[in-house]
Amino acid sequence: MAVTQTIVIVGAGIFGLTAARELRARGWRVTVIDPGPVPTLTAASTDISKVVRMDYGADALWTELGRKSLARWAEWNAESGQPLFHHDGFLVLSRGAMQPGGFEFESFQHLTALGEPLERLDSATLAQRFPAWAAENYPDGYLNPSGGWAESGRTVAWLAQVARHEGVQVFEQCAFAGLLEKESRVIGVRAKDGREFRADLTLLATGAWTPTLLPELSKVMWATGQPVLHFRVTNPAEWQAPRFPVWAADIGRTGWYGFPALADGTLKVANHGPGRRVHPDAPREVSPDDEPRFRAFLRDTFPALADVPLIGTRLCLYCDTFDGNFWLDHHPHRPGLCVAAGDSGHAFKFAPVLGDLIADAVERNPDGMHERFAWRTCKTVSSEGARAR
Q1: Phi and psi based region of residue 236 (left: phi greater than 0; alpha: psi -120 to 50; beta: remaining)
Q2: Assigned CATH for 87-147+222-320
Q3: Is the pTM of this model over 0.85?
């Protein structure tokens, strides 16, 4: 009779919980610890919304993972009985004609070749269909009806509930203190309250804290802070799909993206860029320069939003890898230790397939994508990965 393998997972974010469910389904005995409560307020997974898309330029791997994820998001909606994913579409616009080599052009070409029913847009069509936009500033782009957004914090809470039902032990308010080791092997973890959790394998799914906990990774991944601002509109219906779906405004060059308004009028705008390096335990404060920068963008792109009230800010932490690819592998020099990190600001959309990817790495099941996510050095940088985000 086969002996049941055990694993302790540190971190109950989107990496940790999806891995926990999949490993449990494969027969592992799974324990998860998190400083919690889950969802943890400081975790990148804990937010009101995340973009879900398959648009990744010419990158075949990310595109295929995005397509698979979109199908499974629909399954999660059915399984949960709640709208974790909102199928509102994804509006991708350019401030000039889409050009070869650019994110917008390459995404359009690649997805069209795959048979996706994209709708090409010009300024006249944009003004008619999506009147909030300063259409003269965005003469080219497309609508991908297959995209949308996920209620990320709600998704994490649901995953934790389902994982428990499936037999995963989830310990909240249980902060990680250190690794337990016997000779040269990691044999579990110690919590700050003194409890010990021993297992055959230990998986660190610790997001932006990973390079702090494992300093040997600090040259290939780091925590960065990205600004997110929440505004309030008084007429939410006018700022919701189909008139106002998830959007990207020349994102390949500017980093601007955002979401439809929530029912209470909250409208989220964010910028995806280099960010600034931060310590994950430092105060989460956006720069004083961010609000004026955001308002200048709104004035130029959505004039009616230029002076709407600001109701909140968030510094969203990425765990950026040097090439933009995830980091899913066994530690090469510390037997018994695995790492699932390196979200690089684009992991949440893949939540329904993340568990499979991580579990395959844990079980050493190589496939065509393992090289992209394996333990590596900067000398093996993938140009496709670096472009992917």
Answers
A1: alpha
A2: 3.30.9.10
A3: yes
